[in-house]
Amino acid sequence: MVKKFYLDTNTIAHHIILSNIIKRKKIKVGKNSKFKRYLDAHELIEKIIRKKATGNFFSSPLALTELYFAIFEEYKCEKMYNEGIPLSSWNSNKRKMELSKEEIAEIQENILSFSDDNICDNDDGYVKPIFCTNWDAYDYDLLPELVFEKNIRTHDALLLATANDEGADYFVTSDKELRRIIK
After folding, report:
1. 10-61: per-residue pLDDT in tens?
2. Which sign does the torsion angle of CA 45, 71, 22, 14 carry?
3. How many Å apart are CA 52 and CA 65, to the nearest integer?
4. In angstroms, rounded to a whole number, what is the distance separating the alpha carbons of residues 35 and 53?
5. What is the Cα 171 distance to its own chain's centre?
């Protein structure tokens, strides 16, 4: 039986970020580089794309919408790192940190490029892209358990409930806390 995999926002974001870093800096990223935390997600999605495993992997419109904020935050962290801002003051500086119009355009271009090449809406019947999304509502009955009993944040609960409603066998995420809770 073919398994279904739901891809969390961070998995897709890490792939997009590392793809852009490799393209932009023309660097080789390995297990010992500062970008190694993106490597597993990047390799997974590259393998999925190469094998054209259509129909096995999906996400949701909410996860795809979250990409903008996730990548925006990662760009700000990389900028603070490059500027030598101490890690202890990142939280206070992150809200004030601004990106240039070029950096924002790069984020948008990277997300749209990935989406155009690899993502489709299940309802439109177009099957070329690898990762499909569905606009159907999430599993409302599961939300109270996820939020009240498992203490999962609202947006993560919505993603998990969507994965459940779509019949996912696996929820692919790099969120350590979420993995611990839903083990």
Report:
1. 999 999 998 888 887 766 666 667 788 888 999 988 888 887 766 678 888 7
2. negative
3. 23
4. 26
5. 12
Q: At what angle are helices 61-82 and 154-165 packed, to 10 degrees?
A: 140
pLDDT tens for 152-183 read: 988 899 889 888 888 889 999 999 888 888 76
Contact 132, 58 (CB under 8 A): yes
Phi-psi region of 111 (alpha: psi -120 to 50; beta: other; left: phi over 0): alpha
Q: Residue 22 contacts by C-beta under 8 Å, 6 or more apart in sequence?
A: 28, 29
Taking alpha carbons only, the member of 54, 76, 44 closest to residue 174 is 44
Three-class HEC string of the chain: CCCCEEECHHHHHHHHHHHHHHHHHCCCCCCCCCCHHHHHHHHHHHHHHHHCCCCCEECCHHHHHHHHHHHHHHHHHHHHHHCCCCHHHHHHHHCCCCCCHHHHHHHHHHHHHHHHHHEEEHHHCCCCCCEEECCCCCCCCCHHHHHHHCCCCHHHHHHHHHHHHCCCCEEECCCHHHHHHHC
What is this structure's pTM?
0.81
Please state the domain extents for the chain.
Answer: 5-137
List the structure tokens of 32.
């010992």
